[in-house]
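We keep the chain:
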Amino acid sequence: MPIKAVQQFMLGTVLSNEQQAKETLAAMKAAGYDGIELCGFMIHPIGFVVKLLTKAAGMPVGKGGNLDWHKLVQEAGLRVVSLHTDLGSLERDAHAVAEEAKSFGTQYVVITGMYRFDYGDEAAMHQLAQRLNKAGETLTAEGIHLLYHNHNCELRHVNAEKRAYDILLEETDPAFVNFEFDSYWFTEGGANALAWMQRLGPHRAVAHQRPGHPHHRQPSRPS
């Protein structure tokens, strides 16, 4: 059965203190949501530069990094469906990321590229696919599954025939890497989101939609 959940990024700065976080999570539960995807940038203290960069990208993270998120989520009666992190953190210490995911009771870790990679460079995309495979294999050994979250930058062409997302789909191993598909960003980028979802199929993707649309998440195990 699908799990209705909210990505913590979507809540922006309304999780800045304990009382506000409790009220926001309670409101989510009352609205019929079952879970939340936590973000490493928002559940740990972060530096000024990271805050500035996320704000510039339209994703302010608030001041919730010092809160007890294990307690807050449990008291709200929500489940953590996945933990959002970054590829660099996985490559530095996959074990630590896996242990944190397990501490929240989830088997899914999600990363996104966005501005971190040159999505118009074919060689860079081949390299990214290899890095994802390696990180995913390491996480799999820890009992955790890796999902990649797209924006619109993956729609950039790397050559006359292929887009960056084509490379990621074709060269990542489904045993180690699957996808959290964000239909908003592909639609915003002018793509047929449904066609891409059908191409991914039920074993490689979970659906992700923005506020104003149903946001159903059901992580699928790698086949």
Summary: Confidence is low (pLDDT under 50) at residues 211-223. The chain is about 40% helix and 15% strand.
